[in-house]
Here is the input.
Amino acid sequence: MNVVLGAYTHVGNKRTRNEDAILALRARGEVLIAVADGLGGLAHGAAASNHALRRVRVAALDCEHESVVSCVVAALEIANEELVRIAEGDPTKALGTTFVGVVLADSSFTVLNIGDSRAYLARDGALRQLTEDHSVVAEKVRVGIMSAEEAAASPERNQVTRCLGVDPAFDLDVLRAEPLKAGDRILTCSDGLHGPVPAAGIQEILASAGLPLQAARDLVRAALTAGAPDNVSVSMAFVG
Here is the structure.
């Protein structure tokens, strides 16, 4: 499996600090791409996102007897416990972050997600969202009391219903492994990308870019052109 990686992050047009973190690495012949988006409404969003990805990075690289997916899940559970413990008894120390990651192994990939950061698969000219948002507006769209257009404009659009660091009950989505195909382009991103840039725009950039780092920069540039009210982060893998 020939896989080329690329990742890029930007503070955006309106924020003064970047609370996102990105990761793209190879471990035990497998590949991991990930994005974590620290919750700006809490005291230490940047610390939370970076702590989670540090845990994940070390676990993936040190993983010996289990699959990389299992090691990443275990690392996220530990990170959640640590972040919750830091804030116990002192709300001013609250830390929270989303996480989305994709592990590519042999001829398949597995997606892990908590929060509203997303993973997409671009294949055969079509773009498919692989993750389900854990957010207030996404829940309302799913039960039919809000349209996707209303959700995009709602003041509740940044409120997540699940994340790392807030609830001791760890509730991570681990999606069934799917087959990989030559030509696949897999993207993980924060809502700073998928908020201002429509799916059609994301698909067009993924289809036209020759290398993932070029695609990452072009996607961030598209978000900045569209206003980029939030941090913008992408991590991706192109499969040859």
